[in-house]
Design brief:
CATH topology of one domain: Alpha/beta knot
Order of helices and strands: HHHHHHEHEHEHEEHEHEHHEHH
Strand content: 5-15%
CATH architecture of one domain: 3-Layer(aba) Sandwich
Number of helices: 15
Number of strands: 8
Strand order of the largest sheet: 3-2-1-5-4-6
Shape: extended
Helix content: 55-70%
Structural class: alpha/beta
CATH class of one domain: Alpha Beta
Amino acid sequence: MQSANVLLKKIVRSSVLPFAAQYGMKKNLFPLSRTLSLSLCLKQDNSCSPSEKLDLDAWKKVMKSGMQEEVGEVSEHQELSSLAAAREVLAMWRLAGKSVPENISEEQLQTFIECPSKSAKKKYLKYLYVKEIKKKSDKRKMEEKRERRLQAQQQASKTDETKSNSLICLWSKCMDKAYNWRAAQSMIFGQPLVFDMSYEKDMSAQEVANTVRQLVLSEGCNRKSVDPFHIHFCNFKDSSLYQKEFIKHYREAWDKLLITVTDQCYTDIFPKDKLVYLTADSPKVMKTFDHDKVYIVGSMVDRSIKTGVSLARAKRLGLETAALPLEKYLLWNIGAKNLTLDQMMCILLTLKDTGNWKKALEFVPKRKYCDFVNKPVHELKKTLNLINALKLGKRQEQVRKQFAKNYSKKLTQK
């Protein structure tokens, strides 16, 4: 019996247990196989190289990244669910007849969700609804306008308007030739008018663009005049902001303009005794237009330039200055007494042709003055001050004393 048991153990050890350790049999059938397999695995692990061992830090990183991805997926799922719920609410409100836009983006929907109260949500939806309606109406108006334009073009093609258009084009070409001929004559026989282009450093790029726009209008007014000026752009630098803006406006016609463009100063071209710098800061008032003088206008925008810049430049060069007699003919209302370059061009052209100040000063914007006056403005100001003093309730004795004082000053001056 003992020999049979010993024989059976040998058979199990030699055949069954190595098989169980190699192929991992169930532990309830062979309890000893687990210990044997573990011992074998431990032996195999001890025999492995250090590079094949498990890296615990890398394993921790992988596990953490997996957790973060799971959290991110959960948050994205929550956001998608909240957006879907918000869209369902909007669909219900739209069916209920409330002011809800038809198309709403995800950003707008997120803003709608973040609104603190229901009333705030309704106000935001109403704002989007009104905005959408306005956009649709603008689009509809643009389409209607496009359709009307197409219909007008079709009708014009069917009628004889093509002949009139050809006549208009022929007339415009002939007038351009006449204007160019006048400008060419003015370059030989016309009175010079100088634009000082040395104020680029005192202005920003936008202000230079506005100045060039006014100069383009001035050149157009001068070209269409009966007796145009010979325009000089003095102190004009190549590759300056002035030149870049002029090329934007004129393009290829910039090199064909019938004007004189030079980098020289006007004092090097004309004698100083004939130069008159027109500036609003001048203490001397211009009484009449002199056809023998060469008038200079500063090419700058008046809004941002400090007062006295052009006057200081004229004084440094030792030139005569003059200002337009605005106070003599106009009862000034509001605003500075500075005019744009195209307004100055129209005033000077009218003075050159007619010599009438009232007709010339009609080009001053009407918002800046009340009306033309017959009496001197200083007398009107005194009467206005007297009326205001009586309205304020000052005593008559003080008013009489002030009047007597002013009257005595006049007598002494005489």
